[in-house]
Amino acid sequence: MNQEKGLKMKLRREPKQSRGSLPVQRSNVSPGAQLNRLRNEIDRLFEDPFGAFARAASFFEGWEPSLDVYEDRDKITIKAELAGMKLEDIDVRVDGNTLSISGERKCEEEKTEGERCRSERYFGRFQRSIGLSTAIDAEKVSAKYRDGILTVVCPKAEQAKSRQIEIKNA
Amino acid sequence: MPSEKGIMNAVTERDRRMTRETGERERNFVLPLANISAHEQEYVVELEMPGVDQSGLEVTVEGDELTIVGRRKPDLANGDLCYCESAQADYRRVFEMGPDVDASRITARMNQGVLTLRMPKSEKAKPRRIEIKPG
Predict the structure, then answer these.
(1) How many whole angstroms separate alpha carbon B82 and alpha carbon A31?
(2) Contact B35, A120 (CB under 8 A)
(3) Which of A3, A120, A156 best probes binding to B when mutated, by most B CB atoms within 10 angstroms?
(4) pTM for the complete prediction?
């Protein structure tokens, strides 16, 4: 609805950035990685047609924040771009090796009076899950929210940590 | 209600031209998503810039041009980046303001990665009721 209004007002408007499960073109991603992603996406489409439908549905209904995953010797760090949210609207869960981030971004703009000239931001519910390849210590998972970025730190379980083996001088 | 012309004049994009002009240097910026709404007294511009705090923010007005640059805070070492969806770049967006914006009274507020700019309308642009004197 806002879109239509925007058009009527003859405002220039960029096409909405596609997000989430569809392959997203981003300037910093190497062409190889993009191709990989597209291929994975196509593979999954054939493997699990219902899954693809389900994802497509969620794609049109909601939005998906961008995720970055970092790993070092003793932890996995996940960063989600969640600008302009309230702490109580974000939910982080660990279930076995699956980390889920979900929540709802509510539109706070005073839309009582005032006319939308441009709306590119996404609002509403989102949900993302990440399967972690390494065993983590669920008890010690911590999360903080700052400058619109949610950072979840998952310490690796003791047995999963890499360990340097001392070489004895025989 | 603001007039259609008022909205059109208010805040218009100038990115494309700028990108062409400045070329190479601008390649490391991404466009922050924006919401703009027109109110009776002001325009409200919201820009999404996750990862930017107040110290990384630069809002400049030059003539009728409003430039917003948001620089991400250098990240602490988290280990190797093994999966990446974020743009990992700084933000930049340029708007052209109409004559009905009082550029000297623009206020900016940063909250959890969302920059809110309030751009009051200049006195002469506000709707004013004209009193009709009995003839």
Answers:
(1) 16
(2) yes
(3) A120
(4) 0.68
- With residue B93 as reference, give the H or E element that holds it: strand B90-97
Of B2, B83, B89, nearest to A115 by CB-CB distance is B2
DSSP, residue by residue, A69-120: EEE-SSEEEEEEE-TT--GGGEEEEEETTEEEEEEEE---S--SSSEEEEE-
Q: In this predicted structure, what is the pLDDT of residue A46?
A: 59
The one-character DSSP state at B121 is: B
Q: Who wins on pLDDT, A56 or A155?
A: A155
Q: Which residue has the tokens 């004559």?
A: B99
Say yes or no: A73 contacts chain B, CB-CB below 8 A. yes
Global ipTM = 0.75
A75: tokens are 């932890």
Identify which has the larger pLDDT, B1 or A65: A65
CA distance B49 to chain A (A): 7
Pair A20, A63: CB distance under 8 Å: yes
Who among B2, B44, B50 is closest to A82 (CB)?
A: B50
Q: Fill in the DSSP letter of residue B112.
A: T
Would the CB atoms of A109 and B51 count as touching at under 8 Å? no
Does the structure show a pLDDT above 50 at A58? no
In the beta sheet, which residues pair with residue A98? A95, A131
d(CA A109, CA B35): 9
Give the tens place of pLDDT for each residue, B50-91: 999 999 999 999 988 999 999 998 777 678 888 888 888 899
Q: Do B39 and A110 touch (CB under 8 A)?
A: yes
- CA-based nearest residue in chain B for residue A121: B33
